[in-house]
Design a protein that fits this description.
Helix content is 8%, strand content 54%. It has 440 residues and is mostly beta strands. The strands form 3 sheets. The chain has a 17-stranded antiparallel β-sheet that branches. Strands 2-15-14-16 form a 4-stranded mixed β-sheet, with no helix packed on it.
Length: 440
């Protein structure tokens, strides 16, 4: 019985195998006859990375301002900033475009940037346009300056903390005399074209511990060359350095120190106005932001101007010249987060800082501050045919000290500083600063 049962099962199995073979459709698995799908090449597509729309008190690009003899540095004041950036999927390319609409309708700015990060050698192309209006006292004329700049930068990172950057540029400055009277209407506009080159060595190993709170060291050493196309003997050379060190005292309590210095030389020069802070705004009296009582030497062929900050306790131009050196020291204490010992969801409380600071520096002409070549060393008094020259005996080095508060309000990092300046070894009246900037 067992043998018959085994034979029956085998016949049953053969029956089903034959049935399967009849119903089975053989498929040729020869891969050479399969259709080859088309190769799809990766196509770069961009997406919006960020968008900023806010009130602003700074320039879009921190380039030197054209010196037109007005003897005043033009501060941007309040304005509306719109900035948009786009990246590709792999973040190999970055596009940035923006404009700044000024509240006085006279200093609008535009900026376009394209950056390639696909290879180790990073490349960037920038176009920047800036305008501002000022009054030239010597010519009794209102002028408007139009500056256009085109930069091409190459940045080679040696490692995660060091890089070498070179920038070649073309700059045009056009000064237009406004037709406020017949004399200004007849004046010809000034136009200058500059070829520029800048080389920078950058080091940064700082660690981010919070807004305006770092640990580590970073510095930049740079050199610049400017040459005017229209005329000979128009060279301008600039050398400078900026060193910053952040020492951790305990947890997020840090001691921040900075040393910055720069010099300009050649047939043309750059003038530095010492005093004030970056992104400083004064709603009540913009004229008090610049000290017009300190004279400027117009015989030194200044073609560009900039500010040397921060020097708290004074307005801009407490000292000036084609050289400057500055030491800043701050004790930054995020006091609420320090005692809680953890991050707080509330941005105002989490970033609230108490700061104590001290500043020391000078801007001067000549080889050293005591060479006697400074314009503020002498004062001329003219009365008819009589000219009297007074030696002012001003101490070229000034200092400032005080305290401040910092925090984030409505997405802005707000700085409040109360400072006392020290000039000629005398303590000056206290000054208040409201600004929006990071670090020093």
């Amino acid at each position: 019985m067992l043998f018959r049962s085994y034979i029956f099962e085998k016949e049953k199995e053969n029956f089903y195998l034959q049935k399967i073979k009849k119903d089975y459709i053989e498929v040729d698995l020869d891969t050479s006859k399969l259709p080859i799908p088309p190769i799809r090449i990766y196509e770069t597509s961009f997406y919006t990375n960020y968008m900023a729309s806010q009130i602003d008190f700074n320039y879009l690009n921190n380039s030197y301002q054209f010196f037109n003899g007005s003897g005043v540095y033009y501060n941007p004041g309040i304005g509306y900033l719109f900035n948009i950036g786009a990246n590709d999927l792999f973040e190999d390319y970055k596009l940035v475009g923006g404009f700044r609409f000024s509240g006085d309708f006279n200093s609008n700015e535009y900026l376009l940037s394209f950056e390639s990060l696909k290879k180790r050698l990073n490349k960037q192309l920038i176009f920047h346009r800036q305008t501002f209006k000022s009054h030239v006292e010597s010519e009794k004329a209102w002028v408007k300056v139009y500056s256009h700049q085109l930069f091409y930068s190459l940045r080679f990172p040696f490692n995660q903390v060091m890089a070498l950057k070179g920038t070649a540029g073309l700059r045009t400055d056009r000064q237009v005399y406004l037709a406020t009277d017949r004399a200004n209407l007849a004046k010809k506009n000034d136009f200058m074209t500059w070829l520029t080159f800048k080389l920078e060595y950058i080091y940064d190993n700082t660690r981010f511990r919070g807004i305006n709170i770092y640990n580590g060291t970073r510095f930049k050493i740079f050199g610049e060359v400017y040459r005017q196309v229209e005329r000979k003997k128009s060279d301008l050379f600039v050398l400078g350095a900026d060193f910053r060190y952040y020492k951790k005292i305990h947890r997020d309590l840090i001691w921040a120190n900075r040393f910055a210095a720069s010099t300009s030389f050649g047939h043309n020069k750059l003038i530095y106005y010492l005093g004030g802070v970056d992104n400083w705004f004064n709603f009540f009296n913009m004229d008090k932001m610049f000290n017009k009582n300190i004279p400027i030497d117009y015989t030194r062929n200044y073609v560009f101007q900039t500010v040397a900050t921060p020097m708290r306790g004074f307005a801009q131009n407490i000292r000036n010249g084609n050289n400057f050196a500055l030491i800043n020291s701050e004790l930054r204490w995020p006091i609420i987060r320090y005692f809680v010992n953890h991050s707080i969801s509330n941005k105002f409380l989490n970033n609230f800082q108490v700061v104590g600071f001290g500043d020391l520096g000078s801007a001067w002409a000549g080889w050293n501050p005591y060479s006697g070549e400074n314009s503020y060393d002498k004062k001329e008094i003219k009365n008819g045919p009589i000219t009297v020259i007074l030696h002012t005996n001003r101490e070229p080095i000034v200092a400032g000290y005080g305290f401040g508060l910092r925090s984030v309000i409505f997405g802005y990092f707000i700085r409040l500083d109360w400072a006392w300046g020290v000039e000629n070894f005398e303590i000056q009246p206290r000054m208040f600063y409201l600004s929006m900037s990071l670090d020093f």
